[in-house]
Amino acid sequence: MVQAHYGEFAALLVALFWTITALSFEFASIRVGSLAVNIIRLVIGFLFLSTFTLFHRGLFFPSDAGMQNWIWLSLSGLIGFVMGDYFLFHSYVIVGSWFSMLVMTLAPALAALFGWIILGETMDIKNTTALLLTMGGIVLAMFGKGNGQEKLTLNKPVRGIIYAFLGALGQGLGIVLSKKGIEGYNAFAGTQIRIITAIIGFSIIISLTRKWPDIRQAFSHRAGMTGIFIGSFFGPFLGVSFSLLAVSYTKAGIASAIMATVPVLLIPPSIILFKRKITAQEITGSIISIAGIILFFV
Questions:
Q1: How many domains does the chain have?
Q2: Contact at 8 Å (CB) between 138 and 102?
Q3: Does the N-terminal or the C-terminal CB of the chain have fewer CB atoms within 10 Å?
Q4: Is residue 1 a part of any domain in this protein?
Q5: The domain containing residue 62 runs over which residues?
Q6: Torsion of CA 287, 171, 177, 260, to 10 degrees
């Protein structure tokens, strides 16, 4: 049964891996700060990935990449990992991983929009409808009635919503730039280039904000480091690897639809582990948003 649906099973594992990753990084960000989580998980992820490429390609470092690969993938790393993940991890602390990942369902829609603007790709009626459906689901989850109130009000801090949206914006644009940079090159090695650039980018931010003492202090926080290590293993390493397997053994649309279920998978652990109150309206918004993502790929 599993062999007959190898790609679908791999996609389901990716969704589970990214669920574990989001929870782990939320846990760690609350304890050691989002900036520390960002740069430490990138270094750990790079070591995991480079060890894999050493056995897979015979190269620990992407030394065979061309100038065009480096330029576009570096831009992708700066916008997707540095800008996108900087704001995403801040949103974890403010609104939690569940709502942040729900807003991140906008990333494929924004990628399609940027692909239309930058690469000249088609943005048809179906894609536009999918974008509106995804946005509608997120908006539904954002609003609710407070205690004794008749009017709908935002049920999440505005700053957290903006940070999550900027995270989705960064990831969406990063996907388009990486697509341009990965042409004719190995996907794993391309991810290495993105991570290398992101490490440099975060190092500059940390130096300018003089946060290196906070980064060093994070290494002594056992619980925080455990969360970072688990998230780094299941996300940048296993998540990326199995997503490539998924699209290799099944249609990209089917794989993407299964992998988009992360916000729904995050609901039970968010309630149990972080004691978050998630309403029926928010769950409905999640389902509508995921339906929009599925529409993109069918």
A1: 1
A2: yes
A3: N
A4: no
A5: 6-297
A6: -30
